[in-house]
Amino acid sequence: MTVIDEPLAPVDPDRFRALLRRQAASVAVVTAAGDPPVGFTATSFTSVSLRPPLVSFCLARSSSSWPTVAGAEHIAVHLLGANQREVAQTFATSGINRFAAHSGWRPGPYGVPLLDEPVAWLLCRVTDRVSAGDHAIVLAEPLTGHHGEGSPLLYHMGRYAALQPTTKES
């Protein structure tokens, strides 16, 4: 067991961010129908429950996407592949029309934008929004989805990364 023999430092926002950068996370783009539609890159996507199926993601309530997501009945979550770094960057860029900057999408059920060629996507019905600090936790029930092939895009230490293929030992 490691003993900490230094004074305990408070976890302020900068230290919290530095600590959480050490956690590798899958990269997702969440989209919602609107006029215009919205989409944003999220690394907070996670499964919540199998029975019933539920997923969640977090979104800052100060985000330009929040007003649309706050009223959306349906959203889509796209798990990006290792070859989709540019898609992740586009949907993480503030102050641009993300759907004009990324032409690889089509309207899906309920008008929710569906991106081309993610590793997997889920079309979901929003079931709840929970206020949590300066963010909201959005809970959603998957209604349908699809998965393809490929390695996921990850985010770690402020950079996009991909899994390295493993070699089978003899």
* CATH domain fold name: Pnp Oxidase, Chain A
Strand content: 35-45%
Largest sheet: 7 strands, antiparallel
Radius of gyration: 17 Å
Structural class: alpha+beta
Fraction of helical residues = 10-25%
Task: Sum this structure up briefly.
With 170 residues, the chain is α+β, with helices and mostly antiparallel strands. 15% of the residues lie in helices and 42% in strands.
Structure description:
By secondary structure, the chain is an alpha+beta fold. The chain has one domain: Electron Transport, Fmn-binding Protein, Chain A (Pnp Oxidase, Chain A), CATH 2.30.110. Helices cover 15% and strands 42% of the residues. It has 4 helices and 12 strands; from the N terminus they run αβββββαβααββββββ. It has helices spanning 13-20, 66-71, 85-92, 98-101; strands at residues 25-26, 28-32, 38-42, 46-50, 53-60, 74-79, 105-107, 113-115, 120-132, 135-147, 153-156, 159-162. Strands 3-2-6-9-10-5-4 form a 7-stranded antiparallel β-sheet. The mean pLDDT is 92.
